[in-house]
Structures are given as structure tokens and as C-alpha cells.
Task: inverse folding
């Protein structure tokens, strides 16, 4: 699911209690968490959330001196992990009523570093949430695959885009050409549309260098850009997001001597020929 759609769901207070915000970089993940928290805690009417001005919006994510008592962020406390002890004491807040807002937001800033015990504590809370006011949990991670399956299966995954630098100037054109082929494929599911879709993704620049990551990241960003502008059935949307994610790992295949065109064709048809 994309952030825009998630914000919309949150505006109507229909958001799943646990959300994984993954992809892009650390700053983007944090700013997405703040944006989502503002929508969840804002006191204005739903269509105006986040207003950016109310006593909740103005303090969520702002510097420590004006912190919001219902917006909690857990940072990694050890060198490479977030300990069970720190996580348990952090989650204790979820058993108390909110101080000011209509709910509480808990952000796990580096969820991929949760130890087994820390993840268990979180799971227990997700399985038996305290009643009354809503509690929202946001798990921030570079890749959702770095999180335990049990956490992933209980959370809504939101992809924020590729972490690698991509070529902004190529994205719109690639996205348009790719989108035309996908629209054609949805109207008439013939393999020729998948070939033209793959060909569209390969039109960017920078492919001469077999080790370059940028053209792959650009192609991935083009798919995400296309998804932002269309309404699609869940299976095809999931398939396109999975394709966008897998393109980021594709440079490894290229190094084995397969051309980028062949790799794109293979990945596009594998993900889209029968989306589930
Ligand atoms: Zn507000």
C-alpha cells in the first residue's frame, strides 16, 4: 500500500493498528511516521487532518522541548539492537490511557534491530491489545523482509520507495510508458503488453555500466510513480509493488552477464503474468 492511501484510511480512523513503513531512507521513514501520527492525533474534522496547527499536530515530531505525551518513539538502545528491556518499558505506555489525544502512537524507529524478546513483547501487545482508545504501532525498517514473519503478518506494509538514488528526470516518462502498457495489459492480458512494459522500464539512462544501481532504482521509482496515480485491484497493485521491490536487487543478476532487457522481461512477466 502507498502512503497516500494509508493517510486517507487514517483520516477516517480505519487504519490497521500496526503499520510497517519501509523502503527509502531513515529520514523519509521518520517523516512518514510523523505525518501519519499527525493524521491519527489531529483534533480537526477528518477531511482537514492533519491541520498542522492544532495542539497535537504542532507538537508531534517537533523538538523535545514541546513533545507530545501520546506520541512515543523508541530508538535503538544498544549498538546493533533494540533490547527487550527497552522495548518492554516503552510498550508499558500502551497500557495507560492517552493523556491528551484520542489515541496513542508508538514508533519503533529501527524495527529491524528488535531482538527476539523485543519482538515477542510487541507481538503480545498486537495480539491482545488493551481496550478503549486506539493504539497505533509504526515499525520503521529499510526492508520489510528484515522483520519477523509474525510481525509482518499482523501489520499493514507501506512501501515508501527505493533507497538508492534514482534519476528524477527519467521517472515521469518511464512511468507514463510503463503505465500505458500495464493499462493495455489489464484491458487485454496478452504477453505483448508485458514485453512493452519491460521495454519501457529499460528506456532510462545509465545501463552501460553493468554494476550501476541507478537505472534499476529509476525503473522501480517509475512503477511506484505509476501506482500513485491509479486505482487498481489489490492483487495487481501487490504484484507491481513486489516487482518494484525486486528491481532493486536486480543489479546482482546483471553482473552475471545477463542483459538488462532480458532481466526486465523476466521479472515483469514473472510478477504480472498471474498476479495473486
Ligand atoms: Zn491538527
Result:
Amino acid at each position: 500500500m502507498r502512503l497516500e492511501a494509508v493517510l486517507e484510511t487514517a483520516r477516517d480512523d480505519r487504519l490497521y493498528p500496526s503499520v510497517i513503513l519501509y523502503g527509502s531512507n531513515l529520514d523519509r521513514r521518520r517523516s512518514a511516521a510523523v505525518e501519519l501520527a499527525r493524521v491519527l492525533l489531529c483534533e480537526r474534522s477528518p477531511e482537514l487532518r492533519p491541520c498542522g496547527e492544532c495542539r497535537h499536530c504542532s507538537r508531534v515530531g517537533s523538538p523535545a522541548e514541546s513533545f507530545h505525551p501520546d506520541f512515543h518513539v523508541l530508538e535503538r538502545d544498544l549498538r546493533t539492537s533494540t533490547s527487550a528491556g527497552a522495548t518492554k518499558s516503552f510498550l508499558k505506555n500502551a497500557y495507560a490511557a492517552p493523556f491528551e489525544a484520542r489515541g496513542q502512537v508508538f514508533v519503533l524507529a529501527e524495527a529491524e534491530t528488535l531482538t527476539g524478546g523485543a519482538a515477542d513483547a510487541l507481538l503480545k501487545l498486537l495480539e491482545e491489545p488493551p481496550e478503549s482508545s486506539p493504539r497505533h504501532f509504526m515499525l520503521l525498517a529499510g526492508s520489510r523482509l528484515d522483520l519477523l514473519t509474525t510481525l509482518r503478518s499482523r501489520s499493514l506494509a507501506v512501501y515508501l520507495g527505493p533507497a538508492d538514488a534514482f534519476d528524477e528526470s527519467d521517472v515521469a516518462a518511464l512511468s507514463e510508458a510503463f503505465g500505458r502498457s500495464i493499462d493495455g495489459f489489464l484491458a487485454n492480458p496478452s504477453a505483448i503488453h508485458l514485453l512493452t512494459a519491460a521495454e519501457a522500464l529499460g528506456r532510462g539512462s545509465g545501463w552501460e555500466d553493468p554494476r550501476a544501481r541507478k537505472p534499476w532504482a529509476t525503473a522501480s521509482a517509475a512503477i511506484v510513480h505509476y501506482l500513485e496515480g491509479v486505482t487498481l485491484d489489490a492483487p495487481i497493485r501487490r504484484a507491481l509493488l513486489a516487482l518494484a521491490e525486486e528491481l532493486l536487487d536486480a543489479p546482482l543478476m546483471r553482473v552475471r552477464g545477463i542483459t538488462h532487457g532480458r532481466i526486465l522481461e523476466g521479472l515483469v512477466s514473472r510478477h504480472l503474468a498471474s498476479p495473486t
